[in-house]
Amino acid sequence: MKTDLDSLATALYVKTDDLLKGSPQLAPWRPLVGITPRLSDAELVTLAVMQALLGFVSEARWLRYAGSHLRHLFPYLPGQSGYNKRLRRAAGLIRSCVRALAIDTTRWTDDVWVVDSTPVECGRSRETAKRSELAGWAEYGYCASHSRFFWGLRLHLVCTLGGLPIAFALTGAKANEQQTLLDILAAEPVLLADRPGQTVIGDKNYFGRAFEAQLADAGAVLLRQARKGEQPRPGAALFKPLRQVIESINQTFKGQLDLERHGGRTIPGVIARILQRILALTAAIWHNDHAGAPIHRSLTAYDH
Are the beta carbons of 272 and 91 closer than 8 angstroms? Predict the structure, then answer.
């Protein structure tokens, strides 16, 4: 298997098509009577992943590029409006594809997870914050890593050390990180039920006796740096390099997949675009894993 964009697109199309054939209920709902879409759902997912990997934030520009350079893969391409509507309706399918690809990697069974949240900015002007459809979900928050305030959301990630997304959630900027992690794990109890003694590594924000007790009851062991005034905690020497691992995973989303330039203006639009980028990273790791690439999280072979 080659590590190039056409090979990834072909493999992803086949994987998604097989997933839909085995579980047709995952496809976006459409009336039984009507015009059959000329762009299949598997092609739509593949097209969305290629857009994220190639760094096209504008859907109109992406479709113009695809029309000129990717006709050998997509004989038919919808207009910008149709593409946008179908992408928003396919959020459930994209989420299912993320899980299907993640399970089909050697990284899925890793016994160490890293947890963190990263800002997803949704606007900068005061008028945007007041009039946006996202107002009420998006809110003002503070990013300690970059010492800045922002208006938007937070993407909470549970990943392996290799960057494979295991679980995730999108919340308001002020959402409590400990409670969000507990909610993520409670929503899918099978994740820890199948992994007794799973190690979870987080930063100093993941603290509290009750929080650690709830994680322990769920079957996870929390490792983090000691906060000011606390006694030294086990594994303190490991946290500095591991913190760089966590930051590099976030940087892959922000620097290579343009997480903060998602362009979403509505709740369904933001959700679809964030899922699009999570799927793109997962698909690259999945393809690199099957191709035997030395670095599974590398996107270099697919970004040009």
Answer: yes
